[in-house]
Automatic annotation (TrEMBL):
Family annotation (SUPFAM superfamilies): Bacterial luciferase-like
Swiss-Prot/TrEMBL keywords: Flavoprotein, FMN, Monooxygenase, Oxidoreductase
Upper lineage: Bacteria, Bacillati, Actinomycetota, Actinomycetes, Pseudonocardiales
Protein name stated in the entry: NtaA/DmoA family FMN-dependent monooxygenase
CDD domains: Nitrilotriacetate_monoxgenase (cd01095)
Recorded family membership: Belongs to the NtaA/SnaA/DszA monooxygenase family.
Amino acid sequence: MSKPRKEIHLAAHFPGVNNTTVWSDPEAGSHIEFESFRHFAQTAERAKFDFLFLAEGLRLREQGGQIYDLDVVGRPDTFAVLAALSGVTERLGLAGTINSTFNEPFEVARQFATLDHLSAGRAAWNVVTSWDAFTGENFRRGGFLAEADRYARAERFMRAAWTLFDSWRGDEIVADKASGQFLATPRPGQFTVKDDHFDITGHFPVPRSPQGRPVIFQAGDSDEGREFAAATADAIFSRHGTLEAGQAFYADVKGRLARYGRTPESLKVLPAATFVLGDTDADAREKAAIVRRQQVSGQTAIKLLEQVWNRDLSSYDPDGPLPEVDPQVSADHIARGRASVRMNRDPLAVAKQWRELAVAKGLSIRDLMIEVSARQTFVGSPSTVAQSIDDLVQADASDGFILVPHITPGGLDAFADTVVPLLQERGAFRTEYRGSTLREHLGLSAAR
């Protein structure tokens, strides 16, 4: 018996401040003006996407004691942007990244419950933790938590928020003296949370929202992160977008669900994906090569190399060879607030690997940085990209993709106009929304 055909889930990630965004293109626009957010969101909704996704950075990144040159356009508040977008969209889900290390459950629960009401059931929360003291300096608590402690706090934070969301009682029947009728009135209930991380009690001020609880996203890739997702998340934001890596990740996280009494359908796996479209596959490959060089300028190449070498390399020629000097291994790092620093935990091994690659392919510093950092998941004509997406989803490498265009705000337009209709013709993607809430878009059951 053949396996039932899966329906693809698609979402759009508003490009943040990073070196994947092409700033030099004449079509590039603002990352903070509301018109950019409106255009992007309405394009995603026109294409019948599940949701729009906003990342968040809690501190501007630094390198060599100066603000990183790709981090100066501003980072507006997530809730303010999503609340505004709820007024110019009708069905599109609204997903925001909110940190569990430095925030408090009461405040975050109140904000998400409010957003879910304002949007009529379209709110989602990407729960993240913070790993560095540099970010913590913006907050009264300061400092940072060890990885295991971060996820322990995140799980307690999540369950505290759930307690608040669920604290309102079911409708209470009350007699209305004026009309003589009996009316159903929701009533706030008492909540109490006491554990190693939180000690709060009171009455939650926001009634139970249309979804009951927002859809929960998680993006951690460590073993602790995967386990946290299996226990608590509705969807996981993955970085494994290729067939073999995607299938391995998919099988791993789905295989953890049974121990929490969950079915494979209760957790959606959605890798981030970039794309470059052309009239033909050859045309798209030519465009992709141009985009990669736009994404990694000579200046950016040196900055990226410094994040591994942990040295000032500004005197080096980006079109020249890699430095002969080895990376400097130190707890005090030249780049602060950059996830790539954390991911390159063995800089000497990375340097050795990169040197071998540069020699084998005759790569300059800039060429190497393009090779190792600039990736496009889908490159081809609309028909090629549509087939690639469908093949990966049907092969259980993912349940869909969160698309990250390299141009803001119009980078999603061509995908919506050319690839989406082909996926719809295949019967792999909806032609109309069948529900009004994000849970319905994702095929998730009501919040427990």
